[in-house]
Amino acid sequence: MKRFIGFIKKEFYHIFRDKRSMFILFGMPIAQIMLFGFAITNEINNVKIAILDKSNDTETQQIIQKISRSSYFDIEQEIKSESQIESVFKKGKVKAVLVFEKDFIKNLQTLKNGKVQVITDATDPNMANTISNYISSILQNYIQEKNKNIQPSYQIQTQTQLFYNPAMKSVFTFVPGVMTVILMLVSAMMTSISITREKELGTMEILLVSPLKPIQVIIGKVFPYIFLSIINAAIILLLGYFVFEMPIEGSLLLLALETVLFIICALTLGILISTLADSQQTAMMISLFGLMLPVILLSGFIFPISSMPLPLQIISNIIPAKWFIIIIKAIMLKGASFSIIWKETLILIGMTFLYTGLSIKKYKIRLE
């Protein structure tokens, strides 16, 4: 029995000394519960909206103030005409536009009925529906407070209009999201094991003594996977277009170029992982567990980033998938041009150069 107890103690010591085992046992569950706990929510917070106030009277101003005082919405801007609505949506920040009819206060006082139109960006149908419900709830709460001393009571009629996805098809969200997740994980995973495979097979020495420069080795490792990932992307787009009737409103050339840019960014991230990992198993674990949860939860694919706590919103900025989802939705659903998505494109280009530079630096270190 003493030998058995001694054996168990030895196993405990081995586990506690292995940092990777401790991370899997305690670090990953803590990280997962924190991510799931804060990221997965059906509530909305700080959603940016625009106001088109055709009446511009005391009543509409009071309603606008009540909406802005809530934690659910931030008034991003006030627009002057309906012709500005689509351009505001294409920029991507504003998720809804609140339109007050002309002579709102007059209609409310004489006809006892005022009309408010809620126009939402339905590229994310669940969020669009939630925004409409929240605004309707605030309006109803306002009118109930107003009716305490008024007989007969006032009513506010809410009209909803959906931009880009009037049928509320969830596939319009999932095709771009799934495409992003697949390209990110497959590209990063495949390249993450490329250099570590050389080490395990014993062929790393050939690369070390070859006249190839580090940048040439990295490009050589990435190049074949670019074509394979492009085929993946083409298959997903074709299935989305012909099977699920996913529209492509923008330029096909722009969509193709942006997709290739994201693929290269994901591949260079995989190369960076491969230069950091000592084995294929470690590289695979980092690619799967280090990328899968952040890509799914913090990219805006399923859950709105604006509703997350500020620290997670900041962390989401370093997730390449976040920026590609914004780009692909803007092109496919909104017909956006490069002038709308230039900032997100520059961010992906910057990330690509950063990952490439770090990979070269780490590769040089291993040469010494």
UniProtKB/TrEMBL annotation:
Superkingdom of source: Bacteria
Any one Pfam family match given in the protein's UniProt record, by short name: ABC2_membrane_3
One GO MF term attached to the UniProt entry: ABC-type transporter activity
Localization: Cell membrane
Residues passing through the membrane, by range: 21-40, 171-195, 222-244, 250-273, 285-304, 310-328, 340-358
InterPro entries, sorted: ABC-2_transporter_component (IPR051449), ABC2_TM (IPR013525), ABC2_TM_bact-type (IPR047817), ABC_2_transport (IPR000412)
GO terms for cellular component: ATP-binding cassette (ABC) transporter complex
Chief site of localization: membrane
Membrane topology: Multi-pass membrane protein
Domain ABC transmembrane type-2: 132-366
Keyword Transmembrane helix among UniProt keywords: yes
Record key words, sorted: Cell membrane, Membrane, Transmembrane, Transmembrane helix, Transport
Family: Belongs to the ABC-2 integral membrane protein family.
Protein name: Transport permease protein
